[in-house]
Amino acid sequence: MRILRRVCALVLRKGVRTYQNTLANKDLLFRIHPSVSHALVENKPVVALESTIITHGMPYPHNLSTAKQVEAIVRAEGATPATVAVIDGEIRVGLSLDELDHLASSKSPLKVSRRDLPYVISKGLSGGTTVSATMIAAHRAGIPVFVTGGIGGVHRDGQNSLDISADLTELGKTPIAVVSAGVKSILDIGRTLEFLETQGVCVATYGTSKNFPAFFTPNSGFTSAYNVQNPSEAAKLIAGTFSLGLQSGVLIAVPVPEEHAGGGQQIEEAIQVALAEASSKGVAGKDVTPFILQKVNELTGGKSLQTNIALIYNNAKVGSQIACALSNQMRERKLKSLISHPEKPSADSDVVVIGGINVDFIAKRTKTHVGQIDQGSVCQSFGGVGRNITDSLSRLGHKPLFISATGADANSDAVLNYCKHMNTSGVARLEKQSTATYCAVITENGELSLGLGDMDVHQQITENYVSQFEEQISSATLVCLDGNIPVSTINYVCSLAGKHNINVWYEPTNADKACKPFLSDAWKSLSYSSPNLAELCVMNKSLGIKTPEVLPDTLEESLSVAVALSRPLLEHLHCLVVTLGPSGVLLCGEHSEAGSVNLQPRKLRKKRQLCALHYPALPVTPEEIRNVSGAGDSLAGALMSGILRGRDTDSCVRMGLLAAKISLLSPHPISPTLTLESVDPDEIQTHKWPKPSFLDITI
Predict the structure, then answer these.
(1) Which 8-state DSSP code applies to residue 571?
(2) Each residue of 150-200: pLDDT tens digit?
(3) Any idea which residues carry the catalytic annotation?
(4) CATH number listed for the domain at residues 33-338
(5) What is the value of pTM for the model shown?
């Protein structure tokens, strides 16, 4: 109980919103390797690679050396490899050398397709992912190009057996570009191409010919609908598919290099023998392909394995070149857009955020050694409350103008490069100043052991500097302030709010800074604030209102105190979002006609009937939390997004809960995977949301 209270106290003190739902398991069981994550964040080319080629495609140690060489080829072409597999029930996108070796040397690894994913994950098992499972993982991670040896297809006599690979249906519903050496000749290639057409999959041969390859041979006797002659053409085809919003993939069929295609006839004869033996022995289903490949390798004296490895290397080279071309085209397209519509301070920004930007160093202790160096992990991320909220809003489809200050140093270069997707034109880079840094040491149980911050540069976000953006602030739909900025700057923005009827959201940051607007009448111009209980107490103390000496430790008492302390502030504020850590969130404000708290901005400041609405949080364990520094900011950003989009209160809060969940399970304060679709409750209907409850206390 004592440990639980300490965790809750930390959550309240840091303003972390531990909201979870049953979808949390999807993120807990999905891990992106840091090298892949960084490449995706920086919009650099990434190539997904499947792992059944390691577990079932060829014998050890050829499988391991091939996997390493394929990754080396991808890197040499300027892309980042992301080999996908399931390790101990966790889908991993990007593997370490140890994980590659573990897969390659496994005695009886599982072959994991779409069908198998739920079972393998539920049992905590490991296995190689097929084309279909790898496509799912790659799409989930945001990787557009996937390289494999050959895809599955319609098996011979498939019109009777209905033995059709899940690779084909996956291509029909997952927007990924798959680069392969066509379809293995052990399959019915004609029917496979017909099935792909039915699924709406665009198929193109790579090269000057439309001849469709058959894995070991460059010509199957069938043709693709189209051909692309170089990486640029292939990238344009892929980009066109994605820009249309088609929920189907693209198959780029790459013929085996001519110098390795000479033994194709011998291999084809061996395949016929292997097929007959498989039939006589009753080999069926997913066991057919590995059986035949092994048998063919024996019959050809290893020639088929050599050809197999050669075509995989070639596919990796071509696929990486396509991924790089696609990345360059997307970058150029964005640059052209910026030239035509440059991101600069303008009245077009629906939100202005004024606050801090930090470089965070998070150290998590995993094992303590008395008198020695403790074991643990250290990672760098980019935070700051203002930056986090701007990041959240940007990923949710808004174009907030971010006003802040950094030093003119390497940390500033790093964080601004990371924030390229945001409008940072309002960020001042100051000589003789250091970019704000924060270092946190987290214990094995997820508790904050030590926090150190160098935040002096935030004092340079002065009234004089911010006044340069008065036009943008005065015309914004919503202005968000975080508690890092000077009191004089807060007072200045609040004075503009009073003159121009601007809605201002105040994010207190921490208990020490919560008082800033309340040191004068500036707070009366605020519309929203999202304090935790400790910060709410400080706000009331600043107004001379008596507050509890000790924070309550039961939900009932916490709600009672939060309601009582919200009442005086609601004389002027439109709505308070009081975060209660693992106990949920309490909305206090105007009672709406829909029987809820009205989150939408009020046009007139008139007498209102007030109410409070408690949304319970769903549980999360310390072991599940990967980063606690941005959940509250994700919640606030998603709530703001819902308000700006005119969503009802339930939808706004659910968007906030989902955004906070995604943040908690990500190594980044604001997860790079955050999108409007990922937090839209209308899109996520598999979750049974807990019903909010009105309090018995009238405020």
Answers:
(1) T
(2) 998 998 777 777 889 999 999 999 999 999 999 877 789 999 999 999 999
(3) 50, 184
(4) 3.40.1790.10
(5) 0.54
